[in-house]
Amino acid sequence: MKKFVLQQSIAIIIYVRLNSKRLPEKALLKVNSMPLLSLIVDRIKKNSKFKFPIIIATSTNNSDNKLAKYCKKNKLTIFRGALSNVFKRTRDCIKKFEIKYFVRVCADRPFFDVFLMDKMIIKILNSKYDIITNQFPRSYPKGLGCEVSKANIFNEKINKKLKKSDKEHIFNYFYRNYKRYEIFNYKLKKNNKKITSSDFSINNKKDLIKTRKLYKLNKNLKYIDVLKI
Predict the structure, then answer these.
(1) Burial code of 8-42, b = ≥16 C-beta within 10 A, e = fewer?
(2) Over the stretch 103-133, which tens digit does the pLDDT of each residue have?
(3) How many Cβ atoms sit within 10 Å of the Cβ of residue 132?
(4) Cα–chain-centroid distance for residue 85?
(5) What domains sit in the chain, N to C, each tagged with a CATH number?
């Protein structure tokens, strides 16, 4: 795995933890016949034109031992780091695998836009941008957020400047200090308040049931199809 990462210099990092209070262990709950985490991995593998390695980034807490066993059983590469300090988990992960660029994916987003991810990867590899995003400012609905970033900005000596919220939402510091960084933002072409205020992520049991119903209709649904429905 490490050799492959070194060759490619870019990896897709899926952030997961099982201690959610609203919906415990949601990453392993099934959407029809497949656990949510595997559904997202499968969605990326089938739809992306790239074959970059995928790393599951979780915590060293006992609450994530079950996830570690699942990843081992299903041959998914896993990295375990800080639970609450996701910024540190990111930095330690990219250091271990010597990554130059990475894609951030959250494991509660079953309709993650892989096609937009590919566009972002191409953009950052052919430019001088530090971050390619669709969250600054956000026009895409919640659950469709994506960032592709140069890894070296996470190695800067900024620990003392980080707020508590920056450690959980790892790009907030860079957005707040946008004048220091080269950031490109994708905007939704047909933007309106109803679309922007929609939420495609799974936060509770109601969201899970809704997602299961949609996947029964068509497991290859894109976010625009869901909006139409």
Answers:
(1) eebbbbbbbbbeeeebebbbbbebeeebbbbbbbe
(2) 999 999 999 999 999 999 999 999 999 999 9
(3) 27
(4) 16
(5) 2-228 (3.90.550.10)
